[in-house]
Amino acid sequence: MANLALFSNGYPIQLKLLWLVAVSFFVSRTGVCHSQDQIAEPTTFWYGKMAVEGRQFRFIVTAKPSSSDQVEATLQSLDEGDAKFSLTNYVADETKLEFDLPASQARYRGPMDETTGVSNGTWEQRNLRIPLRFERRDEHPQDVPSEVWEGTLNVGFQKLLMRLRVYHIGDGKTEYFVDSVSQKVGGFIAKGTIADQSFSLDIPALKGKFEGEFTSDGESIKGKWSQGLPLELEWKKVAAPTSPSVATPKRPQNPQPPFPYRTVEVSFPSAEPETNLSGTLTLPENGDKFPLAILISGSGPQDRDSTLFDHKPFWVLADHLTRRGMAVLRYDERGVGNSAGDHATATTKDLADDVAAAVRFARTRTEIHPEQIGLIGHSEGGMIAPMVAAQDPDIAWIILMAGPGVNGEQILYSQGQLIVAAEGGDAKAMEMQRTVQEHLFAAIKENSTTVWDKTMLDKVSEDLEQKILAKNPELSDEERNNLKVGIRSGLAQINSPWFRFFLTYEPAPTLQKVRCPVLAINGGHDLQVDPKLNLPKIETALKEGGNHQVTIRELPALNHLFQTCDNGAISKYATIEETLAPLLLETIDHWLQQHR
């Protein structure tokens, strides 16, 4: 499952290290939207800065003419990996600067001082109203720090490129900002202190600190990065920042216009009262009463494209299926993108209720054949699809992509061992990883209904550290630090209603109630949902329930994301250019031709 907490050498291995990174202010959606409110002059740029909860966001708005009655306007967020967002309703005249950012349900409104070319306005997003000042520029703005320092944090098997930007702003004042380049988040406001050869940073938003010493040549600062426990970090002065795009591979499968099908933006009620979910419905160009596939994403907050490392697998899959005559509905999960609600408090059961709501909505659409609606779920979505189908006998079929056949505890034990081995861990690392998991899960199961407050979380962390250290007195100081980091960060990540449900949920009883045709597929190199462990369990449960319309496929050389790979290591998800293997798409095509 794509976003589950995994432990190796005491460190969490997951797709983003939550103990390091604060929540991103936006949900990124790329592309360009148009406004018909005015005709732009030659390309206009606006540069703005906004402080939010210990972070400074730097924005560049670009507006250029597209046609006689349209303007292309985008917002580039320099502190979110240079992510670009489409803007609508862009207006810039002698009295005001205005635009909307649909992907984040945000908007900007500000009066214009035509003499200075400055707009002092307000950024509005949900319940937030934040002052934001934009300056008009004739050329693309350049943000050039006085100094740039970079260093690499070694976190288990992950290496995170960190950046320190220093601005000398006059009158002896200096501003400091910390960026996690690898994770495409930055702008964390820091307080820096220099005393003789020592240098310290305090980063309140991350609850992080750095203490170090300048080298004799003044080109490096060696010290310790700490967010509770210390890690070695050496800052080195660089001539220019490392571009986050340098290591970003191409995504050749991302669909490109023109599209030979219709795209409709939709909204429908979720299972939560007075809460709507937003999504995209793609429909073949001609005809109606189409068969429909509803896509169900994996664990963690997911947008409608199931975006991960710039891969957009659900967009790729929707494009592929719609070109072959099938309608597809994909949507932002509750609390993500344009969907309302709170994802943090939702369990898998809650998300399954949202899928059922999507089915009800689809049956109201005149373009959709109400008796030909199927579900395609990836990872946790492969757990949810049977939950919905077991309750709704009119679901036509389901496809489980890396769906689990055993409970979450067994999934995590399995994936933990496989991932440690694939990332180069030795037998000792695998043993410690299993030990930490067992203690963490036991603590969760002992208090399975209540989410711990900070006091209780600290107490459980200390108790587990003492128990494990007592059984492993031979651990070195470094290993002890690794263990503490793993326990504290691990407990923080799994201390949620979602994890408590996932850990003990047994898929088999639900699978036994599914009567529609089922395709269950896994990649042969899937380390997160092991095909050898899960596919036989899925097949057995379905057939024990009397369902013999079951197709089981293990697809060789594919990982958990169904990319072609050599060993399935999660550290390679981002570097593989392929989003979905042709073998996966062919397998789904062939099965659907027989069962839809």
Q: Tell me the structural class.
A: alpha+beta
- Name of the level-1 CATH class of the largest domain: Alpha Beta
Find the count of extended strands (DSSP E, 2+ residues).
28
- State the end-to-end CA separation: 27 Å
What ranges have pLDDT less than 50 throughout 5 or more consecutive residues? Answer: 1-40
CATH superfamily of the largest domain: Alpha/Beta hydrolase fold, catalytic domain
Percentage of helical residues?
Answer: 25-40%
Name given to the CATH architecture of the largest domain: 3-Layer(aba) Sandwich
What's the total helix number? 11
Mean pLDDT: 85
What can be said about the biggest beta sheet?
Answer: 10 strands, antiparallel
| Morphology call | globular
Count of the domains: 4
Question: At the third CATH level, what is the topology name of the largest domain?
Answer: Rossmann fold
The amount of beta strand, in percent, is 25-35%
Radius of gyration: 25 Å
Word description of this protein:
- The protein has 596 residues and is of the alpha+beta class.
- The protein folds into 4 domains: 6-22 and 409-502, no CATH class; 33-137, Beta Barrel (Lipocalin), CATH 2.40.128.120; 147-238, Quinohemoprotein amine dehydrogenase alpha subunit, domain 2 (Lipocalin); 261-406 and 506-595, 3-Layer(aba) Sandwich (Rossmann fold).
- Helices cover 25% and strands 35% of the residues.
- It contains 11 helices and 28 strands.
- It has helices at 313-322, 348-362, 380-391, 408-422, 427-446, 454-471, 477-494, 497-504, 507-511, 531-544, 582-595; strands spanning 6-8, 11-13, 33-35, 44-52, 55-67, 70-77, 83-86, 88-92, 96-101, 106-113, 118-125, 128-137, 147-155, 158-170, 173-180, 185-195, 198-203, 208-214, 220-226, 230-238, 261-269, 276-284, 290-296, 327-331, 368-378, 397-401, 518-523, 550-555.
- Strands 3, 4, 5, 6, 7, 8, 9, 10, 11 and 12 form a 10-stranded antiparallel β-sheet that branches. An 8-stranded antiparallel beta barrel has the order 13-14-15-16-17-18-19-20.
- Helix 2 crosses helix 3 (380-391), helix 5 (427-446) packs parallel to helix 7 and helix 6 (454-471) runs antiparallel to helix 7.
